Amino acid sequence: MTTYNIYISNKSTTAETYSLFVELLDISTGQGPTKSAYTNVYAVFSIIADTFACRGYAVLSDNLMVCGGDNTPMRLDGTAPDVANMVVIDGGPGFVKSTGGARAGTFNIEVQPYFANKYPGVCCGCGETIAQGDATESSVQANQYTKGVKVVACWQAKPNTTYIVEPVVKFYIATGAYQDGETVNLTEIGAKKLIDFTNQGDKTCASFDQLTDDSYTDVQYSYFPPFLDDHE
Fold first, then answer.
1. How far apart are CA 45 and CA 155, in angstroms?
2. Strands in the chain per DSSP E
3. Each residue of 42-71: pLDDT tens digit?
4. Which letter does DSSP use for residue 200 in this model?
5. Is residue 59 within a helix (H) or strand (E), and if so which, with residue range?
6. N or C: which end of the chain has fewer CB within 10 A?
7. What percent of the chain has pLDDT over 70?
8. Rounded to 5°, angle at Cα 65 from 61 and 69
9. Omega of the bond prior to 120 within 30 degrees of 0, cis?
């Protein structure tokens, strides 16, 4: 389990509200990439890189908050459990027992056949653990739901389809009045700053400034938070 931390120094002339987004995942069905995925606002700056398959039940639309009423942990090292089996029954979508079979670095969501006309808004996606957060007791599913998991990307779940999901450790910071968990189109949110931990090894801290002209400085990566000068 890896925890990533992002530090922003606001040197602009106004108070800013920052939102954190996860880079849109590499999602495919074996027949080319899935392009109709949405990014969810992931609004905490301490990120714990545990990965979960998530599901929701609502029609995707602008500003939709996708529910994460069910999730199941996934491994990314090529060993089980790394295939989430998703079913849609009278109670809506959910996960049954997870299995193995995905390639290393990915996990699969296998959506079983269901009547799409009866359930037109079923969606699935990827979730990650947040550093702080909770779930109401009524939403905790026995032996299934893990508290503190937030949906970071979602898409409509087509019947009888296997989705191959490859999580990344890239994040975007943007300013704006976004709500926690809100579904957005990452290409339409305006100016944003990329934080990419992909080739940073054990460096898990990133820091940068927002300047008076609202531009951003380059991201500095480090092993320790930038205010711990004695470690640098």
1. 24
2. 3-10, 18-22, 26-28, 37-40, 46-57, 70-74, 83-89, 92-99, 107-111, 122-130, 149-156, 161-166, 170-175, 183-184, 192-196, 205-210, 220-222
3. 333 444 557 788 877 655 454 444 555 678
4. -
5. none
6. N
7. 65
8. 120
9. no
